[in-house]
Structure formats: C-alpha cells, structure tokens
Amino acid sequence: MIRSELVARIAAQNPHLYARDVERVVGAILDRMTDALAAGDRVELRGFGAFSAREMSARTGRNPRSGDRVEVAAKTAVHFRLSKTMRARLNHQRIEPEDEAERLLRAS
Q1: What are the DSSP calls for 5-71, one per residue?
Q2: Could you report the per-residue pLDDT of 1-25, keeping only the tens digit for each?
Q3: pTM of the model
C-alpha cells in the first residue's frame, strides 16, 4: 500500500472527513515520525511495531558489476521491529488477551 492508497482507504472508511483533511493528517503523522527519527528518537506504534535510527559504520563494499572494492561511507539507516501482535496476525496465530495484557503491563 502506498501513501495515496492509505489516504483513500481512510477517507472511504470515514465519509464525514474530506480526503484533503485525511491527507494532511497522514502527512502530519509521517512528518512527526520523520522528525523523531532524525532526532535519534524511537517511534513505537503499539500493536504494529517500532522504528529506530541505527548508525551504520563505514565499510569496504564490492561493486557487483565489476567486482572492484568500493569504500562505503558511514550512514544512518532506519530499522523496523515488528510487534509480537502483528507477527502473530501475519502468521495466523491467536494471541490470548490475558497474555497480551500481561506483556503490556510488564513493558510499562
């Protein structure tokens, strides 16, 4: 799903909202997430997953076409970790509600 499909789906599920307003809200959420990651913060969406920025050190890579060695500079990359709830949904497993509640209490 791409951003425009997300906006269209949310607008269709909420007919009382204008598509342009949904676009602004989705844009604002994504902008705040981007700002937080750029500042080095972690972004967690409960039941979905967590995004974090990780530093990748400089290394020597290889050009796949020629096989030559290439120096790759250090950079920051986004890392995503799927939540236990989403992983279970994707694998068609059932999570017992009391297990999920206990896990959330332990995390707090």
Answers
A1: HHHHHHHHH-TTS-HHHHHHHHHHHHHHHHHHHHTT--EEETTTEEEEEEEE--EEEE-TTT--EEE
A2: 999 999 999 999 999 999 999 999 9
A3: 0.71
